[in-house]
């Protein structure tokens, strides 16, 4: 199957290239009678759109979402919800130089080989612009999950070698406000300032830098996840790895856990206020691939964006040496804009798994 | 959908619990006319089976595979290949104590909540025994990929804090031999010895320890991977994360790459012997989610096995405090036996993506 | 899964309600480098659109298709092709009377029960308007199949009790021209005239009438179809049965064949001009669920449209008796407009099966 | 995708060839805590097995089902249920003559062309023996549906030109008993006798004959079916058409309905005992692709089995003329044994749609 769909029961299919007429998504499987708050969808898109600050790309897109179907008198009908986002600020001539060139660490070469044809303008389908459609769909998923009190919170926990300290996650709503109060979307204000300074310097140097996003999901019912292959963390991992520039995913104790002993790693069950909880949470809220009610936690690693404002050696489509100069308007660091994409993909995974859980729920 | 299938065109469905009659798999979509070497399949299973050394579980299973269908006169027919592996050495009474208990960091609690019924013996479906079925299927996938010269090599690159140095991967066949020459399956002999000593000590202490497995895939054709959601590394990540005890996945530069600059991270294209290659390979052989012909490299992190030979506090199924004592025969460290599972899942992802690539291949 | 997608490798997802902003489709899996002839797509839509003749509904829609993605310099890129068709001539007030009523033999009652919410205007998602999106996608499928010389021809073979004689199908292009030369789309001119007269009379009486469509597919390569469940005729059957008002599907000898003897029903193989053919074709071109190279033939039965211009007893949404009067502008007989939908669904099934065949094709 | 799976949430995958070691099925998605009555499963298989009467094939198979997984203490665990049925009475030498021949109207030619390799013994995977696995799975589906009071009843309504009169379907349990009291499984005893005589004569003449099966499903909840493509009747149609020898499917008024007028065809809603029903039921219990609570009714047409006990002209695998003589032990008429397969496939469709309905059920 061509891989432009995500999810089984809450399923999305996206379309659109960076310099085409529009990008968009069809959501098939949003249950009926969910209030579809269009302003909320737009506000989510605004968190992703280009031109939002000095440390992101200076391209301007209003990313205005239009709902074409599936909503009646403000509520989902249970029929497919189509959302389109017209493209506006395309400077296709900025890309004419790459029609015949393969930019290093971009998808130019692989797309050309795979398809034999490539819409080179703005990177075509390989452009991160496509993720706007995911954010729109993720917003609808969030509206669905809202009923259940599920909270999703992501923030930039690292830029380059700068890492924020572990957060006190007691009050996610408060962390969200703190995060949105700075342009790098880190929920630790001190680190945020250092990050902004770092990215600004990188931008002036015509370079780019990577980063990491940490996510917490709270109030997930016990029982989400479909072993043995569609374990909840496996689907979260696939979701994150499908985002442009992601090179790593870990949940709970992650890579650090591989260096630990079982005696220190095991999460002991305790009974608290008539609920079963664990004393520690190295499991990241997921055991045997199924949610156990504790906070789900995971981290996503982003490589530095490949488009840098410096000349680089490369090969052209005839195989000859050439030079690629960075042109266009690009992000020095993608993670501030990626936070909302990570949240969107998280919402999509949870919405899908919630419906799968609902189908099989043990009624006895 | 219940999550017991993996893959789209080369699709496997597994079944079986640890103490049930048998475990097994149906492979639907193995192309016809592939030579099905039953001895090879058995040899792969032998690399996973319990009781193989002092540093793995002492349970004895012969894990003998029987092919029930889909093979005629030694070749695949294009019809489903069913393989079953009878269970033998089950000591169900070793588990009677956990019928009413939730073992820490196991799937007991989540399975009980999700299904309302739990085959507690040996962990039932949540047991890693299920992975034997995957290894059998992965062996068939390897036989299919063999025709294309694709080589898959995985080894234990870390146990606890012990890490092997980076390997010279020029000769994968040689590394394979070195790996199989020690019981921890690390391709660096010096580190292997240290690892064996470490695990043996952990075992004697009644504890367990985590580790990491590094994988290389060579000679992958350019063009495998289906953006935007079924990117090759996203499916590899999901595959690895679906393996018991896995908590992290990274490919190419991985988490380290998130701390790098674009100017140092980009892989420059060069022309070598009429082939396009890259000077470095931080991309791990995948760009824009599509293979570019360079070695694919990734690492999988395993937490320490949750079953330890020590008493632990826990909760019983009525919510009362209880003590769980470790009984049964368990691995102190899972990674030596997991190497072949990682290779199997890798083969399954590649086989599936190869068929998808073949379906859409640009003929012009 | 919500059922708005069709196909596996050549997969479409449609959206849109009769009185919403637009209807449309995403095609995911159209191979790259196919010439996308927009005029052809529009001409196919014109064969379905309302207001085309006196014997179809008098609603006017221009059904203008806009391609939003997946096409570059006139060719498919291998990325998703999104096509939208804005809605124009909606008289929503024509439907205010059914907001609270269940029209007989419509989907009003079942949609209300299933979803708990219903866009009643124009029948919402249950309206046959949705099929315009399928015709657009089917047109793209036809462009793909054209390369292989596959010919698809459908025509109205019955209206009410009027049946056309069996056609001489030697020259399908000629039959197509004959079909398009009359407004009922029957390829036998004499029967066509009788049919037009019959439908016109039915229309004047404020009633509706059913009919049947016969389809022939020529030059299908041997080997399409995926036993045991995705047999070619099983997927054709599902495709046809998914079209509004379809109540029956038969292929080859169909229902008549059930009354025959094996000795008279078997198709004897003969060698002709270095090709294997059959002397008769009761198999309808499909044996064991796989195409054998002979013409594929099948028939689709349509019930009479449920919206009649007469008063009918019914129930309102509170369960009380009420009267439904037929309002709005409806088809007296749906089959003239359905011919192109049948062809479109046929093309979609064949395109999908062709790609699946290509994935598994035996290279030895 | 290779087509050996059926269903989405209640999903089965079958394997096995006629003369291989065994046939079988994995059911993935049977909800937990369903009582799995193994005797019931066996009794269903006994209704399909060969050698059951003088009017069916004289091959002897005990078709004993073994459950290998997914059941614990008599109940489903929610994990995959694997059932295998060993093959016993294979006379492979009966088939040596067809290793090089294409039997008329069999799948020999198409399988050879598609796969390039063919297990010719007993027809390999194309043999109707595969349906035993479906019956086993259908039995589990029936056990699941039993809780909801859903009743499925099928019977032979036609053999050749002999048609049973329409039944009084008030008491389905009684009809079932009547059906099982004769070897042709027709619920009208008079017609049954005529059918038996007809088939016996056909058998003696070394010929075969076709037939039809009528099915009724009662007590289906309102709301099953997933428009626009996975309409309930479309999935039923695909299910039936996937059964060997099926050439036609119709539901409700079927092909006859295509000759009717809307004024006579519409089903008028009435309120009866606080339930909404329809006065007539030309809709066959399904409107807009969704069940409306009335009896679902459909008919499936079977062509005459292709293996006849007479010489026939044919082609061998080198393209030369040859003669095929009917050897082996075959059914003169397949419908008495197919009744249980039709019920099984019906149960599988309903189980799958019930879970899909459950996932999306409107809670408000």
Structure description:
Chains A, B, C, D: Its cofactor is FMNH2. Chains A, B, C, D: This is Chorismate synthase. Chains A, B, C, D: It catalyses: 5-O-(1-carboxyvinyl)-3-phosphoshikimate = chorismate + phosphate. The structure is a homotetramer of 364-residue chains. Chain A has 364 residues and is an alpha+beta fold. Chain A has a single domain, classed as Chorismate synthase AroC (Chorismate synthase, AroC fold, 4-Layer Sandwich). The first copy, chain A, has helices at residues 38-48, 108-115, 131-146, 172-180, 189-204, 232-241, 254-257, 262-265, 335-360; strands spanning 5-6, 11-15, 22-28, 66-67, 71-72, 75-76, 81-86, 101-102, 151-159, 162-163, 211-218, 246-251, 269-272, 275-278, 286-287, 290-291, 296-302, 312-316, 321-324. Chain A has a five-stranded antiparallel beta sheet, covered by helices on one side. A five-stranded antiparallel beta sheet of chain A has the order 10-9-11-17-12. The first copy, chain A, has a three-stranded antiparallel beta sheet with strand order 8-18-19, with no helix packed on it. In chain A, strand 18 (312-316) and strand 19 form a beta hairpin. In chain A, helix 1 packs across helix 9 (335-360) and helix 3 (131-146) packs across helix 9. Chain A is globular and about 65 Å long. The two termini of chain A are 38 Å apart. The mean pLDDT of chain A is 93. Chain B binds chain C through residues 1, 8-9, 29, 31-33, 78-79, 227, 355-356, 358-364, and chain C through 1, 8-9, 29, 31-33, 78-79, 227, 355-356, 358-364. Strand 12 of chain C pairs antiparallel with strand 12 of chain D.
């Amino acid at each position: 199957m061509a891989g432009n769909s995500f999810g089984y029961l809450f399923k999305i299919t996206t379309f659109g290239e960076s310099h085409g007429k529009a990008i968009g998504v069809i959501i098939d499987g949003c249950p009926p009678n969910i209030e579809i708050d269009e302003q909320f969808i737009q506000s989510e898109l605004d968190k992703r759109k280009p031109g939002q600050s000095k440390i992101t790309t200076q391209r301007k897109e209003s990313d205005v979402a239009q709902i074409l179907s599936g909503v009646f008198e403000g509520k989902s009908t249970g029929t497919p919800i189509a959302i389109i986002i017209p493209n506006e600020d395309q400077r296709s001539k900025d890309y004419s130089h790459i029609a015949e060139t393969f930019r290093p660490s971009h998808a130019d070469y692989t797309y050309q080989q795979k398809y034999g044809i490539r819409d080179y303008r703005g990177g075509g389908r390989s452009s991160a612009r496509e993720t706007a459609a995911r954010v729109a769909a993720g917003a609808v998923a969030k509206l669905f999950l809202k009923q259940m009190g599920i909270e999703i919170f992501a923030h930039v926990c690292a830029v380059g070698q700068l890492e924020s300290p572990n957060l006190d996650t007691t009050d996610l709503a408060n962390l969200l406000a703190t995060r949105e109060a700075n342009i790098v979307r880190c929920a630790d204000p001190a680190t945020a300032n250092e990050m902004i300074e770092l990215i600004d310097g990188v931008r002036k140097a015509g370079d780019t830098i990577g980063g990491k996003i940490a996510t917490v999901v709270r109030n997930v019912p016990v029982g989400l996840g479909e072993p043995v292959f569609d374990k909840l963390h496996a689907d979260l991992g696939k979701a994150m790895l499908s985002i442009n520039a992601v090179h790593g995913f870990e949940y709970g104790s992650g890579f650090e856990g591989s260096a630990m002993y079982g005696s220190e790693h095991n999460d002991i069950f305790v009974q608290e206020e008539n609920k079963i909880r664990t004393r520690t949470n190295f499991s990241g809220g997921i055991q045997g691939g199924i949610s156990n009610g504790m906070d789900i936690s995971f981290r996503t690693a982003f490589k530095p964006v490949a488009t840098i404002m410096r000349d680089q050696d490369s090969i052209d489509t005839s195989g000859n040496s050439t030079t690629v100069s960075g042109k266009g308007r690009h992000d020095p660091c993608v993670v501030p804009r990626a936070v909302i994409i990570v949240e969107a993909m998280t919402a999509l995974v949870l919405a899908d798994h919630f419906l799968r859980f609902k189908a099989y729920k043990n009624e006895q």
